[in-house]
Amino acid sequence: MITILAGGTGSVKLVRGLYNVFKDIGVISNVADNFWHHGLYICPDIDTIMYGLSNKLDKDRGWGIKGETFNFLNYMKLLGYDTWFNLGDKDLTTHIVRTRLLKEGKRLSEITAILSKKYGVHIPILPVSDNHYETNMVTNEDDNKLVHLQEYWIKYKGGLSLKDIVYKNIKQAKISWDCRRVLEKSKLIVIAPGNPISSIGPIIAVPGMKNLLHKYRNKIVMVSPIVSNRAVSGPSEIYMRAKNIPPTIEGLVSFYSKFSNNMIFDKVDKVEVEDKIKSAYPQVDFSFVNIMMNDSRKESALARHIVSNFY
Ligand code: FO1
After folding, report:
1. Which atom of ligand 1 is nearest to the CA of 63?
2. Residues 63, 64, 69, 70, CA torsion sign
3. Please, what is the Cα angle at 301 between 298 and 305, to 5 degrees?
4. Domain containing 120 — which CATH number?
5. Which of 13, 84, 225, 227 is 20 to 30 Å from the Cα of 294, by its Cα?
């Protein structure tokens, strides 16, 4: 079995590729971008994987359901409610069912399994924790006002000046037993090319996870979200800087070096890694392929490289 640590729109491409070429996979999903909105519990990273594997994802946006309509949102606007988070009519069904099941007392893991089955996804999508904790941006506004990640990026369009990023309530979070079990039994663990601070970071930061990943570091392979010292997509560079991690290949290698003894970078970065970085990390095996997944053929090609070299 291959387990993928995933979160955000960058990760789903590799999850899809690995599912196409290998099938026996499991996904451990970030949950720190979850939030309550209009009385509904929204789990964007879980849903992106679920929609991605059931061929429902809007691939152009990277989130939500393809062919979506926004009647609900238009009526919320009419009644004067917040519409900065684009909840589509079809997508809304997932949030309503999830919230209903939560209120009936089910855990997020159970609910995700129920929803996955209904959407025809037959691999485990495991929330890293059943506890709610969330990525919050510490801003320079109003005495270090905390703003949820979704609000920061979507409502304020990343326009508030950023001081730090914290995972609020993470100390109370516990790694789910299903996650522990799949991490132990997997022959290979892949860290997807997601944002190191807002997608993968919150998975690694759950108490106990660092020790587990360190223990499994020989069977962990990290796929870089950075090519030519630029983030492939999204706000990784801004968030890494806010955490005082240089948004470079070197910064990334240093960030993951305790947890991953195998790292995949793009071919264009071979010279830089071999000349400037490799000698400081003798325990890490670096490999170089095309990691830009701009279509499904490239998703499968990267997945095939991973399976044939590391499994
Ligand atoms: N991202 C946006 O940039 N704007 C949106 O309005 C938006 C709505 C949305 C609705 C459902 C969903 O599952 C995801 C949505 N996303 C939206 C993406 C989401 O904010 C991010 O992909 C993740 O939270 C990053 O981890």
Report:
1. 14
2. negative
3. 140
4. 1.10.8.240
5. 84
Residue ranges around ligand 1 (CB below 6 Å): 7-9, 33, 44-45, 47-48, 63-64, 85-87, 91, 150, 154, 198-199
d(CA 210, CA 223): 18
CA 6–ligand 1 middle distance (angstroms): 15
For residue 259, give the DSSP letter.
T
pLDDT single digits (tens) 193-252 = 999 999 999 999 999 999 999 999 999 999 999 999 999 988 999 999 999 999 999 999
Give residue 14's identity as a one-letter amino acid code: L
Please state the pTM of the whole predicted model. Answer: 0.97
How far CA 144 is from CA of 134, 136, 170, 182, 245, in Å, comes to 17, 11, 19, 39, 20
Q: Is the pLDDT of residue 141 over 90?
A: no
Question: Token digits for 113?
Answer: 């399994």
Residue in the block written with tokens 């806010």: 242
Quick check: is 200 in a domain?
A: no
Domain span at residue 68 reads: 32-127
